[in-house]
Amino acid sequence: MNKKEVLEIRKQFTPANCAITRICGCYVDHEKDKKMEAKEAFLSLPEEETFKYFDIFKKTLSGTIGKNMLNMEFPIEAEMPGGTQEFLMKLKNSKLEDDMLLEEFYDKVIAHYQYEANYYIILIHGMYDIPGKSSDGIEMFDASEDVYEFLLCSLCPVSLTKPGLSYNAQDNRMQDRIRDWVVDQPEKGFLFPAFTDRNSDVHGVLYYTKKTKDLQEDFISNVLGAKLPMSADFQKETFQMIIEDTLGEESDYDTVRNIHETINEMIVAHKEEPEPLELDKTDVKKIFEQSGVSNEKMESFDQKFEEAAGEKSTLLASNITETRKLQIKTPDIEIKVNPERMDLVEAQMVNGRKCLVIAVDEYVEVNGVNVHTLSFREE
Predict the structure, then answer these.
(1) What is the per-residue pLDDT for 143?
(2) Helices in 136-224 by DSSP H: which ranges?
(3) I want to staple 78 with a disulfide (CB 3.0 to 4.6 A). Which of 142, 160, 225, 375 is the partner?
(4) Residue 123's beta-bridge partner residues?
């Protein structure tokens, strides 16, 4: 799924467009015991509750493709009888009206979702009439072509509110605040089937994770059964390894800066595209060559890339570089630079010492205090 397709489904989580038919939930405590289960028609809920649920569902389809939202495919065995994808298909086709399937789903989540506190499993079934589109891309709502039937699952922490004082309007006094349990925004979730090319894709699932470093591999393998992609953090670490292994002792400041500057320029040029920018081995090789990596070092590039990432792996450009800042660290100093102004920092030898020289054209602040640049000493 790309960002336009995600946005199209997110738009269904509004009162005007609501495509949700049924909602089910299971409240699980920190000992993994089911404390409460609920199931009902979504439109039978009070209006105030539906708005809060809409916020949760939108959050489950939020973040960046490739970081928080991961497109996953099912291996062949998952689609065979008894496989995880087949089970999800049965759950979807039941429209969440089969109690035995629901219990089996809850049991799978409880067994494989690693969370030490209380949480709420929310599962919805929806039916979206996909409007047709004219040749100029305008939606024609009276020309619906297909129906996208889907499940959306949100795993939300349930936490106790903080102690404190509150105002009692009835008695007109301050009193001890009554603490209660509140459902927070989701930590994990998934949309099945995927909505690819504006249609149902039963061979894929979109997975949501709030924390990119915590993918919950056991949950993905046993509840979804989908192929686990390389996480955003692992992609970044892998790319750093490729740079270090390829350059070796030639890993100088200018070359590394040029590599990231080239990638950022590619991201800017690609920003209007719905699909995230993916870089395969050939793409990365060209970037290294354009950034000044010597021919001698490039002779071993293919081997270094395949050892670190795999021969056919791709890396998302947004995962392997910082689009908001260039970060430079020494043991005692940390510098953050706007990627568009990397030219302001240069590596130079000054009085026989290796230095990073920062060009200052405007003002300088030290702990919030303006320092006049005219007072700088000239060597």
Answers:
(1) 54
(2) 217-219
(3) 225
(4) 24, 153
The pLDDT value recorded for residue 144 is 62
- Residue 9's pLDDT is what? 96
Residue (of 35, 237, 54, 230) closest to 120 by Cα position: 35
3-state helix, strand, coil in the chain (%, to 5): 35, 30, 35
CA nearest 95: which of 120, 121, 124?
Answer: 124
Task: Please give the pLDDT value at position 139.
Answer: 60
Label residue 317 left, alpha or beta by phi (over 0 means left) and psi (-120 to 50 means alpha): alpha
pLDDT per 10-residue tile (average), the chain, 379 residues: 94 93 96 95 94 96 92 92 94 96 97 96 96 66 77 96 89 89 95 94 96 92 89 90 86 85 90 87 92 88 89 88 78 80 81 82 75 55
221 DSSP 8-state letter: I
Q: Examine residue 163 and say whether the peptide bond preceding it is cis (omega within 30 degrees of 0).
A: no
Residue 349, pLDDT score: 85
- The pLDDT value given to residue 14: 94
**Residue 255 near residue 268 (C-beta atoms within 8 A):** no
The type of residue at 20 is I
Q: Rounded to whole angstroms, how far apart are CA atoms 55 and 236? A: 31
**Exposed/middle/buried for 5, CB within 10 Å: 0-12, 13-18, 19+?**
buried
Single out the residue of 136, 134, 139 nearest to residue 8, CA to CA: 139
Which amino acid makes up residue 257? R
Give me the phi and psi of 86, to 5 degrees please: -65, -40
State how far the Cα of 49 lies from the Cα of 41, in Å rounded to an integer: 13
CB pairs under 8 A, 24+ apart, for 158-163?
158/27, 158/117, 158/118, 158/119, 158/120, 158/182, 158/183, 158/184, 159/117, 159/118, 159/184
* Strand spans (E) along the chain: 20-28, 34-41, 69-73, 119-133, 139-160, 165-168, 173-176, 181-183, 188-192, 194-196, 199-201, 204-209, 278-279, 315-316, 326-329, 334-337, 345-350, 353-358, 364-366, 369-371
